[in-house]
Amino acid sequence: MPTFLVWFAYAIHLLGYALFILAIVLAGVALVDWLVRTRRINPFNPIARFFRRAVDPLIAPMERRVVRAGGMPHAAPWWMLVAVVVGGIVVLSLLRFLFAEIAGAYASFTQGPRGVLVLLFRYTFAFLKLAIIVRVIASWLRISPWSRWVRWAFSFTEPIFRPLRGIVPPLGMIDITPIVAWFLLWLLETFVMYALLG
Fold first, then answer.
1. Fewest Cβ atoms closer than 10 Å to its Cβ: which of 117, 121, 165, 183?
2. 33-44 pLDDT, tens per residue?
3. Quick one: average pLDDT of 70-80?
4. Tens digits of residue pLDDT in 43-68
């Protein structure tokens, strides 16, 4: 394994610890700020004055969003904590996914032409599955197929869906073509990978 991947894995590990410590600190800050905002701590206490002066301006953007959504202003510190925790989980997940993909690509390239071919097929099937997911979510959210964010997904999946629609009947009001397409892609991927890897 190259040095870059070792350092990348180490950096992800350190970032995970840093985000865990940050979440613990933010939980403490959110608790104290909540106690100050709900007047469970005397508002003239030095801690309360410090939080109103130093912490409240940092939480103000979240407070505006919470109030606009119909929430109470004193819930803003907790929502800030939730946003940081969820954001940290998403960032760590993306970094781990990126690490796995880079390590997989490196391993494929070290196996010669067959490894590169396996990698290309794997990425092609992953891309088509992602396009199916994007298309399904776009249909749930009623996003136009001509929107620049989802147009690519419709372009790549329509050649798969069109012939399937003539074969697969809808299940009441539910179009199960994406499920059938996903299953057929999985079968084809399994067959291709078995043929390539022996």
1. 183
2. 888 878 888 878
3. 83
4. 788 888 887 788 888 888 888 888 88
pLDDT surpassing 70 at residue 74: yes
Q: Which long-range contacts (CB under 8 A, 24 or more apart) does 117-122 make?
A: 117/196, 118/193, 118/196, 118/197, 121/189, 121/192, 121/193, 121/196, 122/189, 122/193
Q: Span 119-131, mean pLDDT? A: 90
* Residues 94 and 130 grouped into a single domain: no
Instruction: Give me the count of residues in the chain.
Output: 198
Q: Are residues 160 and 133 in the same domain?
A: yes
Q: What six digits make up the tokens of 18?
A: 């840093």
Tell me how crowded residue 18 is: count the other CB atoms within 10 A of its CB: 11
What pairs with residue 174 in β-bridges? Answer: 171
Residues 133 and 90 in one domain: no
CB 80 within 8 A of CB 60: no
Which pTM value belongs to this model? 0.65
Cα 159 to Cα 93, 119, 142, 181, distances in angstroms: 32, 23, 21, 11
Same domain, yes or no: 91 and 13: yes
CB-CB contact of 132 with 181 (8 Å): yes
Picking from 110, 126, 160, the residue at the C-terminal end of a domain is 110
